[in-house]
Amino acid sequence: MKKFIVYIAGIFAFAGCSMEPILTSSYSEDVAWSSEDNCQMYINKFYPLVGQSYYEPEVFFDSASDILKSNSPNSEISFFSYGSVAVSPENNIFENWTVGHSWVIDCCRFLDGLKTRGEGLPEDFRLQAEAQVRWFRAHVYFEMARRYGASLILYRELPPLGEKDHPRCTPDECWDFIKEDLQFAADNLPDNDIPGKLTKGAAYAMMARAMLYAERYDDAYKACVKVEECGYDLEPDYAQLFKYKRAAGVSCESIVEFGFSYPNLAYSFDKFYCPPGDGGYAELSPTEELVSQYQMADGTDFSWDNPAMAADPYTGREPRFYASILYHGCTWKGRTLDMRNSSKDGVAFGGGTTSTGYYMRKLFDESQTVGFTNSDLTKYYIRFAEIILIKAEALAQLGKYSQSMDELNRIRHRAGFTTDLTAADKNTCMQYIMHERMIELAFEGHRFWDLRRWGLADKRLNNMHLTGVKPVQSGDTITYTLFDADNGKIRKYPTKYNRFPIPVNELLRNGKMEQFEEWK
């Protein structure tokens, strides 16, 4: 498989890459360009951008949508969701304008040094070094573009020292620049697995994602085809996909991943999100809005209006449900979860336990049965299932509905469905695609951004409340009751949130910067 695998033994040192920098009491800037190993060490500073916090940012983004809910009413994301602290140029929990442009300038600084001081390095190495850093520059620009409507400051070269005044580019200029960087990366990155380095598949995968957001569907489709030519495949077992550790190898589905290695580089994700019965803090919980979308194993929709389904709601669902959700009565780490009010894991408001009747299962390390130590499951930044979903959406937007459903059914076949979906128009295709992205990519940080780019965030997330399910026992019988998981609070999402404001500090220091019209 031609994939990008990050092996890290320290902050910037990659296990599997033999790098021995020159040891001395002081360093000149020329040291970075004195050998291939030293130059690669310089490049390695950019690799943590794709996942050193495991899925922490991703679940944060999803908790701003309709599939995850913060269990604490006083959390930062709750204040955002309820409108208690409104987004403004002075305060924006999603702001990355400042740090993003700083990273871009760091990339330009590397590229400038490579050009002016790296002449002694082999030509093929210099091309691959430039390709890696241009991939990261495109990645950072993409992360800013989806926040600010792709109207940013473009830095092709290192700006002169002290120069502060820069205008915003147009969205087309931004997407053109991202595509240009990624095409260079695709043309010059290696085809084969090289531990600690990006590959051609990573470049085309990033291009597919970026071009989907740019609504350049033909470009997105072509990039997906190029990714497929690299030889990736779907992991046969969806649950197993999220249990890979370094010692277990690498999934055939992985295109861009961050490979942790315990104990040198690990994370404490489970401690913050597992149920209190495990000793976890239970900071986030899946919503009934998500759980109801998991279909029955035969492909029929679940409905609380169906008496048989309502009486036994967690039997006979599709495999991704059992791989992703902890629910009342399920077996978890050798015990049976009890979501009744009187239970330690039961429904309550105020934080520290579920406020929806559910916990996440996907992304947790189930091997930690007693207490918590830092874990080292793999974090996927881009996996092949996302590329198939991008290809399906691009085809739908291009009017190729039958081909779109062929792609979508590949995802559903892995989920165990045997009856294929069909569609004869774009609206039907998109409804199926939206459903599959919601389920397949749950907790991987896509839902909030998907709703925004589809123009649905202000419809799905504004003037609404999220729903939970509470088990109630009467004698030997358990019944399930839907309830307001927001405890009477109403969620707010103004339309102008579809493009976040330029931070006030940028407006003050940059004489050519103008705020977006809706934020003036």
Strand count, sense and closure of the main sheet?
Answer: 3 strands, mixed
- Overall, the morphology is globular
| Straight-line N-to-C gap | 49 Å
Runs with pLDDT <50, length 5+?
1-26
**H/E order of the elements?**
EHHEHHHHHHHEHEHHHEEEEEHHHHHEEH
Overall average residue pLDDT = 92
What radius of gyration results from the CA coordinates? 24 Å
Estimated helix fraction: 25-40%
Percentage beta strand: 5-15%
Number of strands: 11
Treating each run of at least 4 consecutive H or I residues as one helix, how many helices?
19
Q: Look at the helices and sheets and give the structural class.
A: mainly alpha
Secondary structure elements and their pairing?
Elements: E1 4-7, H1 36-43, H2 56-62, E2 68-70, H3 76-81, H4 97-117, H5 123-148, H6 171-188, H7 200-213, H8 217-229, H9 238-241, E3 254-259, H10 269-273, E4 284-286, H11 288-291, H12 307-311, H13 319-324, E5 325-326, E6 331-332, E7 335-336, E8 359-360, E9 379-383, H14 384-397, H15 401-414, H16 426-440, H17 447-453, H18 457-460, E10 467-474, E11 477-484, H19 504-509
Parallel strand pairs: 1-3
Antiparallel strand pairs: 2-4, 3-9, 5-8, 6-7, 10-11
